[in-house]
Amino acid sequence: MADIFDMTKTELQEFLVTRGMKKFRADQIFHYIYKQHIFSWDDMVLLPKGDREKLKADLPICFPEILSKLESPDGQTVKLLLSLHDGNTVETVLMMHDYGNSICLSSQVGCAVNCAFCASAKNGFVRNLTAGEMVAQLMAFRKYVTPELHSIVIMGTGEPLLNYDNVVRFMKMIHEKDTLYLGYRNMALSTSGIVPRMYDLADEGIPITLAVSLHAPNDELRRRIMPITDTYPVADVLKAADHYFQKTGRKVTFEYILIQGVNCSTACARELAELFGGKNILINAIPINDNYDVGLYRPSAGEINSFIAYLQKRGINVTLRREMGSQIQAACGQLRIKRENI
Ligand code: SF4
């Protein structure tokens, strides 16, 4: 069955024409869906009744079912666990910032990358999401929570660059004037460092923000946290990130989860400063939430502060990420895993 959220306007025009409807109806339909948030064919009163009946039969507007909705006590974070048409589930999180609403999307069901700290990888990789299923995650928030959207981050479950074609198609689709008209500067993607696809993304002509999960300053340590280091060593990841900056002019962000006794010593900070000295990058330090299952714990405030202070003293641009939604299992994959393991 065709999926309206997986269609560009040109594709919808072709769909309509092959079923004896007028091409220009695609403009009206996109306007209803993306500008007016009307999601029922019956309510699209500008369409002839006959067209509406055909569309109801051939192109039902299907939203993922909400299995759970969690809201943080401060009301700033809302997390949805969504059920897809085949019964698989994905998580999507809305974060309300001073500058506007940001939605964190999943790009795959499960993940094959298997980072030590991540719940998403626990039950393995299941399948890629289509571009339409990523659009549907945004539209579920627009329908059920709020239509206001400032930015998106593809940082939920999955490694987006291992679902490259669908992820790029998705970003191009929501950039279109007829859909959400979201600027590329309001889109960010986080990768574990899939080097060949980082080069492809640099050549794609879509200057989004690239975030790279680094989490350690050398291969030996990074391998313990991110086994993908065996395939893509730190030096290759940094080279690809440099290329991305040269090609797009967009400063690359390096995410660095702070784990007590693992990667936030002064020696690690020194190595990091040596890697990045003089480079126009940003390090986003994120203290881990205590994870008793895998025995990884949040460092003390003192350890966090001295790690950050060391880097700042060495002229490295570093921020400490404000944590949102830790009370509602907003860390990647937690809610989905909890449900699957019930
Ligand atoms: S952190 Fe991201 S890349 Fe790593 S296992 Fe989790 S979802 Fe996959």
Automatic annotation (TrEMBL):
Q: How is the cofactor bound?
A: Binds 1 [4Fe-4S] cluster. The cluster is coordinated with 3 cysteines and an exchangeable S-adenosyl-L-methionine.
Question: What GO molecular function annotation could you give as one example from this UniProt entry?
Answer: tRNA binding
Compartments annotated for it: namely: Cytoplasm
Q: Can you tell me which residues bind [4Fe-4S] cluster?
A: 111, 115, 118
Query: What does UniProt list as catalytic?
Result: 91, 332
Could you tell me which CDD domains the record lists for this protein?
Radical_SAM
Concerning PROSITE patterns, the annotation shows:
RADICAL_SAM
Q: Name one Pfam family in it.
A: RlmN_N
Query: Its Enzyme Commission number?
Result: 2.1.1.192
Q: Which UniProt keywords apply?
A: 4Fe-4S, Cytoplasm, Disulfide bond, Iron, Iron-sulfur, Metal-binding, Methyltransferase, rRNA processing, S-adenosyl-L-methionine, Transferase, tRNA processing
Q: Name one GO biological process term.
A: rRNA base methylation
Enzyme superclass (EC): transferase
The coenzyme or cofactor needed here is:
[4Fe-4S] cluster
* Classification via InterPro entries: Aldolase_TIM (IPR013785), Methyltransferase_A (IPR040072), RlmN_N (IPR048641), RNA_MTrfase_RlmN (IPR027492), rRNA_lsu_MTrfase_RlmN/Cfr (IPR004383), rSAM (IPR007197), rSAM_sf (IPR058240)
A cellular component annotation (GO) from this entry: cytoplasm
Q: Which residues bind S-adenosyl-L-methionine?
A: 158-159, 190, 213-215, 289
The transmembrane segments are: none
What's the catalysed reaction? adenosine(37) in tRNA + 2 reduced [2Fe-2S]-[ferredoxin] + 2 S-adenosyl-L-methionine = 2-methyladenosine(37) in tRNA + 5'-deoxyadenosine + L-methionine + 2 oxidized [2Fe-2S]-[ferredoxin] + S-adenosyl-L-homocysteine; adenosine(2503) in 23S rRNA + 2 reduced [2Fe-2S]-[ferredoxin] + 2 S-adenosyl-L-methionine = 2-methyladenosine(2503) in 23S rRNA + 5'-deoxyadenosine + L-methionine + 2 oxidized [2Fe-2S]-[ferredoxin] + S-adenosyl-L-homocysteine
Positions of the Radical SAM core domain = 97-327
User: Any extra detail in the entry?
Assistant: Reaction proceeds by a ping-pong mechanism involving intermediate methylation of a conserved cysteine residue.
Q: Give the protein's function.
A: Specifically methylates position 2 of adenine 2503 in 23S rRNA and position 2 of adenine 37 in tRNAs.
What family is this protein classified in? Belongs to the radical SAM superfamily. RlmN family.
Annotated protein name in UniProt: Probable dual-specificity RNA methyltransferase RlmN
Organism of provenance:
Megasphaera stantonii
